[in-house]
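ARCHIVE CARD
Drawer: 12
Card no.: 0347
Subject: one protein chain, sequence and derived structure
Cross-reference: see card 0346
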Amino acid sequence: MTMPLDGVKVLDFTRVLAGPYCTMMLADLGAEVIKIEAPGKGDDSRHFGPPNIKGESLYFISINRGKESIVIDLKTGRGQEIVRELAKKSDVLVENFRPGSMKRLGLDWPRLKKINPRLIYASLSGFGQYGPDSIKPGYDLIIQALGGIMSITSHKENGPYTKVGVSESDIIAGMIAAFAISSALYRRAVKGRGDYIDVSMLDCQFALLTPMMAAYLNRGVVARAVGNRHPLVTPFSVFKTADKDVVITAGNDKLFFRLCEVLELKKVARDPRFADNPSRTLNHRALYPAIAAKIRKWKSKKLLEVCHRRGIPASLINTVKETVREPQILARDMIQTVNHPVTGPVKLHGIPPKFASGDDRLKKPAPRLGEHTARILKRELGLKQKEINSLAREKIVSLGARKK
């Protein structure tokens, strides 16, 4: 069984999160990803933590699975020459240095496409390759603030504002880059030529605000924080039962009237202020207290059982500890184990898309720094061990630590 990107070779110059998440997705889908790292420390995220296992960063392990690591000093002429030789045989190159860095190294798109016109070259950065802010460093918190999402994220109406609990601007940019690369691979198969892809974290964050952005651009409506309720759909929020908080999303009229039956809210169901979703949303301040008062009388387990039986979407609010035990997560094979050369067995999230024709099991762990340097130089460039040892002595490459 195969995966969609089997046979695709990727040169990965990325580090920390947005870029590595992109190349992790490519590796999960079958691509051969060669991670090029700096001598001495490698990817910065190798040193993030705790938590660690036997000195290995779980942050790094979680987003660099399935890749090979080669250490090359890109500041040396011979190191740059090695990269150009690897680029000749590659399908994709992904980098997330600050704009202009790859050009200074002589490894930018205009130069590499001359030696490999079929190369697909993707650059991820905080603000993109051009524009007044292009050279600024992009961190998730900055992008969330500047990109507008923090202004609508809060546990109560009108703030205080807060960021999303994961580095979503990095992850969204990584996902969009992987999507763009896959699209470019398809077009190359048809047209026979490579392409350059410029992915900005800020652009991706901006696009995430639809339909709020469309509402402002066309009607002047400024989105604001509305707490845990939905700004356009009612009821759609967090409610307190007698023992735990739950979420209920009655997303259409039919579900709303079913919820009224469950909660014995006959007067509410007949009230013209709540006859349809636009009316309910306009009058949410009158509706929510009536619903909340009834829900507080229920035990969460019983309420969820009744809601599920009636087809009303509802759930407890899981912690990470509880989420990993969800039967649906387990049934979808979303927790898998790979053997790391240092840590031993390590559990990671599985591959989200399931292909009938593919094998969605994780194959390889995250690499140790420089673990595959010699193997890659032999396999890709045909170098002999004597030549590789010479490069290592000159500190152009590093052979990495031996497996424990």
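Annotation on reverse: The chain has 18 helices and 14 strands. The mean pLDDT is 95.
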